[in-house]
Amino acid sequence: MVGPLRSSAVTTPPPPEVPEDWPRPEPSELEDARRVATEALSDDTARPATERLAGHYDPARRGAGTTFLELPPVAPSTITAADLHALTVLNAPVGALITRRLLSDSAIRAGIDEALAGLPTDADLAAADRSTFEAMEALAQAIHAGCCDPWVAAPNPWVTSAKLCTRKRPRLFPVRDRVVCKGLGLYGTPLRRYGTRRVDWQVFAFLIGEPDILHRLDELTEQVQTTHRVRCDAVPLRVLDVALWTWLPRA
User: Fold this and answer.
1) CA dihedral of 76, 164, 30, 18, whole degrees rounded to 10
2) CB 146 within 8 A of CB 105
């Protein structure tokens, strides 16, 4: 079996240029996130990464597999019914009102379409700069607003909106939910009691920019294909999402 990634200490925050008023991840958060990712990508455990990925991506089993990203039609420039259906395979069903808001409300759709136009489809989180992060924030805000139920006093559909952002720009947006964010120390801790997508994105940018992690993701994708005859997502960030989600505890 393949062992864990090489360990390298992290002493300073990652270098991506972000807006000046954004919070930065602490060096300890980066160290912890890298440690967790290393464990999640290892085959030298009781639950090898290769086995977990194969189970998730096997089209004959119940995992989301490549369906979340590939369910047609894939329309990079707007929200479609297929996008909302894709959310259901990641356990993020969208109710009737939010469906109408996202598909039929012209003002909401115009805001999302404008934000999507500001994010190239080939943009990659590992190479994100200040303008990229600002455009990501614009899209996240527009989609989050569309996912908010106006009949709820203080709506915060952050998981659903995060997953919809991932569906639209999978090379930029990691899947953020309570399992992954808590497991990486970005949610539910004294430092990040409530979490923030602006910090989460920087941590994932650090992880997906690490050569060892990228190499291991490529290696795992090939192993799953050759050993199990199962195809993983073509997007490394998405494979990292799956490795983390299938590794981290649900409690």
Assistant:
1) 60
2) yes
Distance in angstroms (rounded) separating the CA atoms of residues 164 and 32: 27
Angle between helices 81-88 and 158-168 (to 10 degrees): 120
Task: Give the separation between CA 177 and CA 185, rounded to whole angstroms.
Answer: 12
One digit per residue, pLDDT tens: the chain, 251 residues? 444 555 445 444 445 789 999 999 999 999 999 999 999 999 999 999 999 999 999 999 999 999 999 999 999 999 999 999 999 999 999 999 999 999 999 999 999 999 999 999 999 999 999 999 999 999 999 999 999 999 999 889 999 999 999 999 999 999 999 999 999 999 877 778 777 999 999 999 999 999 999 999 999 999 999 999 999 999 999 999 999 999 999 86
Which whole-number Å values give the CA distances from 228 to 45, 152, 201, 220, 224, in the listed order?
18, 46, 32, 11, 5
**What residues contact residue 138 under an 8 Å CB cut-off, 6+ apart?**
115, 118
Give dist(CA 229, CA 160) in Å, integer: 31
Distance between CA atoms of residues 81 and 152, nearest Å = 23
Phi-psi sector, 91: left (phi>0), alpha (psi -120 to 50), beta? left
Local structure of 102: helix, strand or coil: helix
**Residue that the structure tokens 């899209």 belong to:** 139
pTM, whole model, 2 decimals?
0.92
DSSP-assigned states of every residue in 208-222:
HT-HHHHHHHHHHHH
Is the backbone of residue 46 left (phi > 0), alpha (psi -120 to 50) or beta? alpha
